[in-house]
Design brief:
Blueprint lengths: L6 H11 L3 H10 L11 H15 L4 H13 L3 H13 L8 H12 L3 H18 L4 H5 L7 H9 L2 H4 L5 H11 L5 H17 L1 H11 L5 H7 L5 H8 L2
Helix pairs in contact: 1-3, 3-5, 4-5, 5-7, 7-9, 9-12, 11-12, 12-13, 12-14
């Protein structure tokens, strides 16, 4: 493990060396919330992340998780993203006991929409697909005061709904978030409804028509994005 202790400093060194100052300024402007970033283009950071995963992939899962948490603690968007990618690569090794770890990470380390979406759609989505008994725990996140935890409660169902699972739960989460004033939360549940509409077009459209007068226009526009123009027009009518 001595060599493994050098992995994170090496990753950080490479990220710093690959800083693109122009890209960094654009990235900072792109996010409304304050972010910590190295200013590394996503293709470069993904390549670095993949290369170092090859060095650690044969470690015990708990050792990889420890490295991931160390990355997430930094708060840098690239390091949190790298940790998410590593954890998702272990999805065939998930166990029920991992949920507490994942939930803790969501609540402690997710501070922007990009990391939220990456972590929830891949890690949590894959987890609840494998372990349906944890669906109620993720749905409960919709009652959180943390905007990213609430967004994750919806976005986590994108992976399983693409495989035809959990439509009823998506509607229940949308009910809980229906009039949430936070636009990031509205986009989150609108997004999962949009993804659900690819698999369950009639049911989702019925849900939208039933709730369109209560749904914020932002969430509504996200939810109906994949429908034909005539149905979108019908849904947007007052």
């Amino acid at each position: 493990m001595d060599d493994m202790n050098k992995i994170i400093p090496q990753i950080r060194k490479e990220l710093k060396e690959n800083c693109d100052p122009v890209y960094k300024q654009g990235e900072i402007r792109f996010f409304r919330e304050k972010i910590k970033t190295y200013g590394v283009r996503s293709t470069v950071s993904k390549e670095i992340c993949k290369r170092y995963f090859d060095k650690i992939k044969n470690l015990e899962k708990k050792e990889i998780f420890a490295l991931c948490e160390e990355l997430m603690k930094s708060g840098y968007i690239q390091e949190v993203g790298c940790a998410s990618k590593w954890v998702f690569r272990l999805n065939k090794r998930y166990e029920e006991k991992d949920f507490k770890i994942f939930e803790n990470w969501v609540k402690k380390y997710i501070t922007n929409w990009a990391n939220c979406d990456d972590f929830s759609t891949h890690i949590i989505g894959s987890f609840i697909y494998q372990f349906p008994e944890f669906v109620p725990a993720v749905k409960a996140w919709a009652k959180s005061k943390n905007r990213w935890v609430k967004r994750a409660s919806a976005a986590s169902f994108i992976y399983p709904v693409r495989k035809g699972r959990y439509l009823k739960d998506i509607f229940e989460i949308s009910d809980m978030l229906l009039q949430d004033p936070d636009d990031m939360v509205q986009k989150g549940y609108g997004w999962v409804l949009k993804e659900a509409s690819n698999v369950f077009p009639e049911q989702v459209f019925d849900y939208v028509m039933k709730n369109k007068n209560e749904m914020p226009r932002l969430a509504l526009r996200y939810a109906i994005e994949k429908y034909p123009q005539n149905l979108r027009h019908k849904a947007m009518e007052k």
